[in-house]
Amino acid sequence: CQHEHSKVICLHLGVNVNGTGYHIEKCAYNDSSFRIPDQRAYQPKNVPILPDVPLGSPNYTQCQVDDLVSHLSVAFPAIESKVSTDPGRYVCNFLYFTSLSKLQNALSAVDASLFLHIPAFEMIPKEIQLEYLAEFMRVLTRIELD
After folding, report:
1. Distance between alpha carbon 113 and the CA centroid of its chain, in Å?
2. Structure pTM?
3. What percent of the chain has pLDDT over 90?
4. How far is CA 70 from each of CA 1, 19, 67, rounded to the nearest angstrom?
5. How far apart are CA 4 and CA 43, in angstroms?
6. Distances in Å between the alpha carbon of 118 and those of 11, 44, 48, 77, 141?
7. Whole-angstrom Cα distance, residue 35 to residue 33?
């Protein structure tokens, strides 16, 4: 059930296997240039995700990622939380650009799309990551959209 003042935010998570903290992605790019093949052996190079948008064009979230990072840095001072403008050019970018373009900007039911890169559980244990994600979602319910 959606209330008159409710927001619908499509939140995607991806693991940054080399990450030591959390990266909140501010944007994604219309560029499929996979450095390795995906699970179905698909490996595009310099191919736009959406053919009617110029290759490499960015698309930005409506979420206030700077505000999110500020709050999460205070709530979890021992864990790095930062704004990122580079989700890579692999599956995470592909998914996020598609979500920003097709959901956030096209469908009235979705107010914003957002992508959070998380570290592996070996870097930050699952229990702490669940606490972080719960706080992340609490902040999202209070944050203003552009």
Report:
1. 7
2. 0.89
3. 73
4. 30, 19, 5
5. 43
6. 12, 25, 26, 16, 20
7. 6
